[in-house]
């Protein structure tokens, strides 16, 4: 399929983020007529409004109002009772959205459209503390109080299936056919349709200021991985949301349907890996000389992750499906162990010398990147403050070790740990804990009474 008309690049456009004067120039030239103002919701999807570009510029620094339920709903965007932020009890009022103009970018795959991320504020000017971008900012501020900054790189895994999303929806998501039928991990001989999609995705992200490090096929049929360079944590998460938006727009043009489910099929798991390092005055504090001697800050950070991550699962594994990814020998962790260059562990120490960093492998593809990173930073900061004892590294197959705490088996178990954890309550305000506990409970209840295809296959003529 030809995609020569997919991209629309104005004369003033470069492969980088825009500044407000750049946007002004693009609007004057007629290259941009719409500004999409997007707020990441609890799932990490961008929700917002399409504004006339001239109106957007004329009203800066203000942005649009949005119903507060964009940050207090379920996956289907159905109004749900039980949230303190908004509901029938207060008439579902508005939040003010303030555009973060440092995130302005041109979307080359949507003619004449720019995107800006927005931050949510209450009518009295207070930040909305349950907003994912704000939760990440709060954890970065906690690090900054210790004189530290973080750098982050994200790995995104997702699955592609043949057919458009509308076609797959009409089939009720049954009889899925992966976009390619074999394990193409590290392959360089991709099917033509897949190569064309990769070209379009790479181009779209480049012109949105989200240049990738690499795109590769993964170990399951239809599975793809995209990575970006280490950099600013908030920008890394913003990039991920642009990436998801682009994938969902571009894949159907190649007659493929993407999914960011953690376990889209039995035996298939897609993750979101966070590569994380800490810095003080632009000096990497995880720099190692040898494996025998861990720098103090690296040791305390590792210990904090091992101690804190088990209680924070609803922030990086938010749906019942998330827990079906954690299977033996799946490259998803089943316990909270750590090791040097060990992909069977929850936390993998990667690199050498000044390049040493941590790969946190707990989050699934369905995670909200801001929340997953906020959880990792909160656990890490706990380690810097409380200095729990670091267990010995796993030097072999972590799936066969029995000492480390295991990953929760279900979202219900994870919610129980989350709500009772002193580490969680120390890291996050009570309204935040209750908000995400309620969101997880809604997801549990949404599936609790449904009979699945697997149950029918197993029990129809045997029960």
Order of helices and strands: HEEHEEEEHEHHEEHEEEHHEEEHHHHH
Reported CATH architecture of the largest domain: 2-Layer Sandwich
CATH topology-level name of the largest domain: Creatine Kinase, Chain A, domain 2
Shape: globular
Largest sheet: 9 strands, mixed
Q: C-alpha Rg, in Å?
A: 22 Å
The helix fraction, in percent, is 25-40%
Number of domains: 2
Q: What do we call the CATH homologous superfamily of the largest domain?
A: Glutamine synthetase/guanido kinase, catalytic domain
Number of helices: 13
Strand content: 15-25%
Description:
The protein has 463 residues and is of the alpha+beta class. It has two domains: 108 residues, Roll (Ubiquitin-like (UB roll)), CATH 3.10.20.70; 310 residues, Glutamine synthetase/guanido kinase, catalytic domain (Creatine Kinase, Chain A, domain 2), CATH 3.30.590. 32% of the residues lie in helices and 18% in strands. The strands form two sheets. Strands 7, 8, 9, 10, 11, 12, 13, 14 and 15 form a nine-stranded mixed β-sheet that branches. Strands 1, 2, 3, 4, 5 and 6 form a six-stranded mixed β-sheet that branches. A hairpin with a 6-residue loop joins strand 14 and strand 15. Helix 7 crosses helix 9. It is globular, with a radius of gyration of 22 Å. It starts with 19 loop residues before the first helix and ends with a helix. The N terminus is likely disordered.
